[in-house]
Sequence to fold (1073 residues):
Amino acid sequence: MEQDASDRTHRSASKQAACTDNAGLQGGGAEESEHRAMRADGGAVAERRPATRNRRFTIAAAPSGGDSLAIAASTTKNSSAAAARRRSFTYVEAEATSSGRRRRSLATSDLMAVFYPPNTLAQPTITDAPFDDVGTASWEPTLERAIRSIVSIKAKCVRSFDTESSGTYTATGFVVDAEAGLILSNRHVVNPGPVIAQAVFVNYEEVDLQPVYRDPIHDFGFFRFDPRQLKFMAAEEIRLAPHKAKVGMEIRVVGNDAGEKLSILAGTLARLDRTAPEYGAGEYNDFNTFYMQAASGTSGGSSGSPVLDIHGDAVALNAGGSSKAASSFYLPLARVVPALDLIRRSQPVPRGTVQAELEHMPYDELRRLGLSVALETRAREAFPHAQGMLVVRAVLPDGPADGRLRAGDIVLAIDGRPHVDFATLEAAVDGRVGRDIRVSVWRGSAVHDTVLRVQDLHSITPSRFVEFGGGVVNNLSYQVARSYGIAVGSGVYVASSGHVLGSASAWRGSVVLRIGDTPTPDVDAFAKAVAALCEGSRAPVRFFSLDRPHKQRVAIMSVATHWHALRMATREPATGLWIYQELERPKPTPESLLKPMAAPAHALPPSLAPADRVWGSFVDVEFTAPFLVDGMRSTRFRGPGIVVDGARGLVVCDRDTVPIAVGDVSVTVASSVVLPAHVILLHPTHNFAVVQFSPERLEGAPPPDIPLDDAHYAGDQRLEQGQEVHIVAVTGDQTPVVRRTRVASRMMVATAECSPPRFRCVNVEGVRLDDQPVCLGGVLCKRDGKVVGLWVSVSSQDSSGKDTTAMLGLDVALLRPVVDALRATGRAPPLRSLDIDLNPMRPAAARAMGLSADRIAQAEAAATPERAPQLLYVAGLLAPNTPAAGLLCAGDVLLECDGNPVRDVSELATVSASAVDLVVLRDGQELSLHVPTTELDAMETRRIVHWCGALVQQPYRAVLEQVRSLPSMVYISCTLYGSPANSYGLRPGMWIVEVDSQPVVTVDDFISTLEKLRLHRSEKEGTVASRYVRVTVVNKSLATRVLSLRVDNHYWPPWKLEQDTSSPSGWKTVSHL
Fold:
């Protein structure tokens, strides 16, 4: 299938969206993780070339000035011989690819349409002008002049909007008015959404571009630049000559092909009447126009290149190409010329529509539709060069033509004037915007006349959007509505779901019909509906996905707008800049709505024993992350939690349910009452987290505490191989699953280092079961219902970098230090660590490393029937700059800790002392070491800074184990698509060490440097240096690079997010950096 010419380089759909679409504006990510699938293959279509007489035609307007043409033909010699040599041929339509570099979309569910093969049309041999006599003309001087007018375009779509996704791309344009500074390129390059672009001329001078016009339908648009910015050359312009295009013409396509700044591709025009290429439903698609075709083999980056004749005139505009053939597709310039003339005079370009799509059919197919011989005769006489007529292909519901035109109608005339080609018909419609036209069509076996009101095409082309909860919504456009045959104005289109709409699974490609009780036909109604909500509440959202417009859905949306801006952007026509206006935010939930709610317990039948004794302590925990920090690649998580202290609202869950501290947490009690909660502890080594809700929000008693077995909770007993247990777990539909089984094995939990770095479970033993049910998690208990273990999901990655999860059982004794401290003091206990990753070692391996026989005998004497003899050794260091890292080495065998033999990993996973005395075996020698421990942060991340689309934070624990040393404490955790950070080379996993030659060591240094930079830049405003900042970065391999980054505080203002216990979410945003 065909792709348009601007190569899409984009994120990530994992909702971890590499800055997911779930985080809305983020890149990399999943939710929609906003990631467009490659287009489907097109079919092969056999096409037969009709025999045509070998004539040369001279065409002139008829004396009457009407629609007829007077044609004088002179038959060349040997026409009969030429006719005898004519043969049919087969044309294969291949999958189309981009002729220019096109960004991939941010939604995982972007929809691809079936490719529509081109109509079987005769190959034209005549045009509006005869073949030029090239004489002694040469391509060399022509191209030398032309390249001074052709520019390489670097652009960033800073927000997903309509058919386009945020991201960076390159393309081509060429100067068509040097004095006014007008550059012609494709519509998908100029972009309907907010775009920042620069043009680089052949001498490598860079100028800023303003998008001043993009056609609502056809693939062309104009940029404007200031010619005074060119200091070392004078721009030249290329003349537009649409009338010169003809089959057999030798052409050159000059532009930024496949990322090369300047490439020259040769070709020969083969068709002038090709059907407009289809790039997929939901994508931008041109229609109601012919395209030209040649075998020039253009590829990514060549969008907007001029198609030149040997005299240096542009006869067409390069737009798309085929991925499996050398075919390239060019837009005719018939509608570009009048638009350019109006823009030169600073006048609006009128564009009209009746919301009907037309196609050109040859006469043989028209006869099958019922066209009479008399009408065909009159049409052929009036338009001898035409080989078909226009037919209605589709009519949009609720449009001006709905109920008046039908698919299959053959268009005869507009206001009594016949039209058989797109350009003249469109010109007639554009001249009647806001007025009625009389359309005559042939339907079946009779002529039908109807009167249609011509609608302003610009009025149904969106020029505003709302940023809401990290996502973007805009009015449903004519482009998208036409792709799916739905009415314009059906609702607001989700260009990027973001944090809030993603909580209702309203991904990119959805159309929101209603929020709560308020219909949302447009962005104004959407803004009012949002303002009527209450912050922190849950509201129903009615929407449908474009791939199933007949299937409406209603889902619950969590209203959490405090993480992101809430504003409306409106495009300024003169400059292309989008001006923001702050919108009214949802109001705080009134106290009257915060009254306690009852959550009645639902008893389970005795047949599900012992689940009936623990089920009341189960709750459902949901977590949504507004930003992809701390190595996240998804933004939505859900799993079971168990209440360990109902009076205090303490709930324990695994870290695959609550992976980080930055986000919204909710706890659902008895499948009835949803309560807000907040994170109070993330265990840095073991796979569990503790969240807290307010039991005062519940009417009556809170959920009961989970019944823990005293011996297992105290650590006197633990889960052993062969032990009988009952698993009580939760399925995906929140129903219980109960199974009696046995412990199959007990082993050290092994997890791999992840990319990007994120939490992994280390230094803990887990168990597997003989018969493991499919579930989200739960508990392991005895027959009497006393809990002896947690059944949790452990996240990791395989060797290919794919995320994996495994279900394991953990001893409840792991909870004791944390739960006891929270019950006693209300605060998380201090957790200290040696920052080492421990693995078990058999005595045989220790013997080979030089361990003495006495030590081995001690280890073997400590063995039990349930536990084979083993020792522990250091598999790796978890942090490079800690005291332990300077004393311990990989391969050290731990023999003693504070005078006691080391037998169990739980003794060293976390410690309470500030230092421990260790005896280790290293290189065959026993060493005594006094090793200080490191205090671990139970929240990991407490501040995030946003600058130019980069989310910066202090390196978290998972990062530390993947580097030899820390270049600085300023770590890039995520970059957002379409931002300066993403465009100029800042990448997640880098450290910033300098900004404009100012060293930065800590995040505080970074914030201070940004303020100094803002003041310094204001003094140099207007210079090239004021637009760029030098940033020195270091990657995990400690390789240093210096990047130049163009600061954009309009679309990407700086802000910081920091912890605030007084806030309901536990976080507050500071925007005045």
